[in-house]
Amino acid sequence: MEGNQRTTCLVVGGGPAGIMLGLLLARAGVQVTVLEKHADFLRDFRGDTVHPSTIRLLDELGLGEGFRALPQSKLGSFRLPKGGGDVTLADFGRLRSPYNYIAMVPQWDFLTFLVEAAQKEPTFTIRLNTEATDLLYDDRGKVTGVAYRTRETSGGETGTGEIRSDLTVACDGRGSVLRQKAGMLPREFPVPFDTWWFRLSRNPDKQEIASLTPRFAGNEVLLSLTRRDYYQIAYIARKGMDPQLRAEGVERFRGRVSRLRPDFADRVDEIRSMDDLHLLDVRLNRIERWHKPGLLLIGDAAHAMSPAGGVGINLAIQDAVAAAKRIAEPLLRGNIGEADLASVQKRRWFPTVVIQNVQLLLQEAIFGPAVRGQLAGPPSPVLFMARHVPWFRKLPALMIGFGPRPEHAPDFARREPAGVGH
Q1: Is the pTM of this model over 0.85?
Q2: Which architecture, in CATH terms, is 5-76+103-188+283-368?
Q3: DSSP letter at 15?
């Protein structure tokens, strides 16, 4: 066993919530250590949407210029096919510039960018190849850190150890190990569909601001996100269909894609085998209490979001900002208490519930009926307003782009602005 170590705040999980929280706390001067179980961030088909709320936050942190230099494409609207044409439901171009689009940025680039910013702070440490396996407690039942195991990149040898901390923050995703070890069970909401991600090539010469328009056929849906040099595609169908799809084989799946998007028929051979499909087991849940003494859960560990609206990353980052504002000073004083942790949940509970309820409505109106072959779509008054009242399209864009109760960077984390307004 490796020697015992100590840090002030231990963040478990190197996703958007964990890295952002680590960056913000380090800028406050808090000794913070982030554990990430993988050796790097290079994993396909994680959420890659960076919404206006996050872009504005990066500007406030003085990171906007560097973020805009990352390889990315822009999403300008969300549309639905209706009556032989498309109806724009959300028009991000109606939001105030420069926060009038969704950026599509590979998550490995985004996380690497945030880590590089955090590593400029002397109190920030990240440990890759380090997986938290259990919680540590004192004799009063307070969480005091984690047990972990490591995997060396050369040769695959493993080691074990413990890290003690004043506060442990679980940012380890919808399958949170720490949530399970703490006995904190989420309330699950029914979701009738799963998503299979894959990619197809595109001509990178044309870099227009793209729109997102789902295509429906029978009980299947296809969403295509325009990236710089490829399409990131989501095939959406009935939950539990994965064994059937894989048993049918790649030729049958290529036919499904061609039927939904005939314009992709000339490149479906790029799907070489069913191994090129990455299944997302869609979940929608939340835990009723995000904390216990010495432990706080945020992001997907506290509330798994459906892919509808692509809000998961941004809601998790908002959690991290709210948490940093409320725990940085108590951590620096050395008297972090459960009331501080409760204040994080109190701040973020309302937007979490609102967004999840909107996702449930979208599920009931669009995705659920679609995978049952009964597509109804939004109510007629909504479609009428979207088609004939241009300003109405700004409302869904605001909900998706910023959400209820968007967070701003704490004063202690701000740096010189990147030259754009707020």
Answers
A1: yes
A2: 3-Layer(bba) Sandwich (3.50)
A3: S
